[in-house]
Records
---
Amino acid sequence: MTAAVRTRGLGKRYGRRWALTDCTLDVPAGRVVGLVGPNGAGKTTLLNMVVGQLAPTSGTIEVLGGAPGGGAAQLAKVGYVAQETPTYAGLTVAEHLRLGAKLNPRWDDAVARRRIERLGLDPAKKAGRLSGGQRAQLALTLGIAKRPELLVLDEPVAALDPLARREFLQGLMEAAAEHDLSVLLSSHLVSDLERVCDHLIMLLEARVRVAGDIDDLLAEHLLLTGPRRDPADLPAGQHVVSASHTDRQSTLLVRTTEPVHDPAWSVDRVGLEDIVLAYMTGGDRRPALEVIS
Ligand SMILES: Nc1ncnc2c1ncn2[C@@H]1O[C@H](COP(=O)(O)OP(=O)(O)OP(=O)(O)O)[C@@H](O)[C@H]1O
């Protein structure tokens, strides 16, 4: 697997508190990769290190084979749409495009203009007078027209209504396919990520909790329901992610690559959102990190 981002033992400490610890992962190139995790899990910290805005406290990080933020050529290869979809309130849409052209050596003006026109954004309108969704679309346009090899987006759709979110993500997917982009996108909205991403990385309490192709994650997680049983008695290949019990019944979300043959269990598939929630609420029986590629 070619990696757009490769980290080894990456960590970031603010004062005495680690925002990210021992982070070892490969973000596959040419894919749309989702980054999830609860508030404070370390997502923004990781993304800021990817784009070179933060220096690691420990470990290493390589982005498109180079050091993040290391020189003009490297900066040109990486686009960043930060958390508040930053635009300049006093500049018009057209002025944003002119600024983009000036600042970015690989700027694709035709792509920028086409997107603005298709979105129906008035080039003469100041960004401060656009709606949140329109501003997000403008920020995405700037990110795409920069023609990066890697586009990093930090919760770009958080403030958008469902329709605007859908349009934004549609535009992102089209751009990824058209320009052979690698995309790394953080969001709390797992259903959105499931729609646009094919690989997922989950951070929990400053650590990588799980990472893998979404198809594999969906195939390898099963919900087992049956007579009450101690999760410790499960076969070795079944790793319990979360467990709940009543007096008579146990419900376990397990990760396994083997079929479950025990007839006492009723076996169901689960959606990505349930898998993510199970890891977040898994409690003490958390298995060791497993990464599937
Ligand atoms: N500049 C900073 N100084 C001190 N602590 C910080 C700083 N930035 C982040 N942190 C802390 O680092 C941890 C990770 O924060 P980060 O913003 O990376 O999380 P996040 O997963 O992006 O959260 P959210 O989903 O809320 O945006 C948190 O505990 C946060 O309080």
---
Amino acid sequence: MDSVFVIKDILTTEQVASICNNLNQVEFDDGKVTAAGMAKAVKNNQQVMVDKVPDLMPLLSKAIMANPLFNAVTMPRAIVNVMLSRYQPGMEYGTHTDSAIMPGGNRADISFTLFLSSPDAYEGGDLVLETALGEQRIRLNAGSLILYPTGELHRVSPVTRGERIVIVGWIQSRIRDSRKRQILLDLDSARKHYLEKVGHDRTVDIMLKTSMNLRRMWDE
Ligand SMILES: O=C(O)CCC(=O)C(=O)O
Ligand SMILES: [Fe+2]
């Protein structure tokens, strides 16, 4: 994963509904509490760490941390600082860059946003990523997740109607360099493609051996 990557429907409609149903018992904090440095000045939202929300951690572990695509793409060593963020009318998160090192000491390589509100439940509230190809404005369906490199500048545009609720979090990858992650992903997909077309022969063994040896070399 070198730029952005979307995993559609990582949560079912029922899972999204069960999370949202629990939220009226939850007290949100001012988002400035967890913003570091420059981000504090531009952050205007509400948030709560996911371990404060009843039943949320087990659900996320099952649905996200165990999702094969999520694992293949991010190669996670740790998933940290996972929180619910809420944006009501007038709230936004101005242009900023996320911290390199999260509280607790994990490096943040990949950021994710998991949308819980459906896009027609609010206006504004786009996640805007500044990429080499220009600005990308992201509004996903409830239950879908976007992964993007933590090092990119990004913002959440002001919400003008309704409520935007998302889960955000950060991943330390076992493979720090996104170019190396891409090589491992490509090698894996080439091997699977070959297996389907040709079947299992010595080429497959050598490709797998190469993947494993690269992982051994790059894993941290
Ligand atoms: O809400 C989002 O989609 C991203 C928020 C964000 O940039 C952050 O919490 O650092
Ligand atoms: Fe951010």
